[in-house]
Amino acid sequence: MAIALITGTTAGIGEATAHTLAKEGYNLIINGRRSERLAKQAKELNEKYGVDVFEMPLDVRDSDAVSAFFDKLPAEWQSVDVLVNNAGLAAGLGCLENGSLDHWNRMIDTNIKGLLYVTKAMIPLLKVTRGHIVNIGSIAGKEVYPNGNVYCGTKHMVDALNKAMRRELAEAGIRVSSVNPGAVETEFSIVRMDGDTTKAKNVYEGFENLVAQDIAEAIWFILSRPRHVNINELIIMPTAQPTAGVVLRDKNL
Ligand code: NDP
Ligand code: 8X3
Q1: pLDDT tens digits for range 90-145
Q2: What is the rounded CA–CA span in Å between residue 150 and residue 139?
Q3: Which of 150, 137, 35 is nearest to 91 (CA)?
Q4: pTM of the model
Q5: At the topology level of CATH, where does 3-179+209-236 sit?
Q6: Residue ranges around ligand 1 (CB below 6 Å)
């Protein structure tokens, strides 16, 4: 059975992707910092879909922890076919002048450096399987919007790394794709607003946002193409969000 490693499965897009790939018969390596959620999820995926699940309870920002995990990965879990680089976040929504260094560091360390640490460790395994990397970027990696500054910057870097991986790994037969969503209602805005659930809920008021399953299905579409087809990138938006930072509310679209 094929194996997929998905980062950031304890919520949102990663969680939906774990369920979608388990339903399609993948054994899974699942990741997140909240180890209790991860353990509960492993049990649920195993019971519901009959797949094997291996936990990767670590912070992708911790390069030593990432290296140690792959150094000790049991032989039966090393034949990984798919890496979904999903773990990420936005922290804060405000102008650069008033920006928080903690917010900036968390986004840069997770969205860029964490993705790099996991990808570097995974490339030797994916060379063996001639596997597939799916990078979760964002419309924020294609455009910028007011007060998105550093988050947009990190996702532009993901876009650049996606292109770099595609160029660099093609000769190894590794496929590389990105999915770049607009507004998806997950825990994303709760994290971005530092836990303020009222502000987070307002983000999705008055229009039909995307849901995590929309993105999971797109990931499965990418992965289920025949070997000669590489989807380089997808941009997926709510109908009511024509571009980054613009949402048409109360329009009955
Ligand atoms: P959620 O907040 O719902 O989920 C984020 C997931 O990432 C959680 O499982 C979280 O787990 C994990 N995560 C965050 N930081 C780390 C870390 N340092 N180490 C390991 N895991 C981590 O958000 P989404 O599902 O919406 O976001 C997933 C990806 O999609 C992100 O890269 C985001 O930028 C991107 N995206 C989201 C959009 C949206 O509108 N929601 C739109 C476009 C892109 P834990 O806290 O347990 O570590
Ligand atoms: C999250 C989507 O539109 O808030 O990446 O930037 S958006």
Answers
A1: 999 999 999 999 999 999 999 999 999 999 999 999 999 999 999 999 999 999 99
A2: 14
A3: 150
A4: 0.98
A5: Rossmann fold (3.40.50)
A6: 7-14, 31-34, 59-61, 86-89, 110, 114, 136, 138, 181, 183-184, 186-188, 191
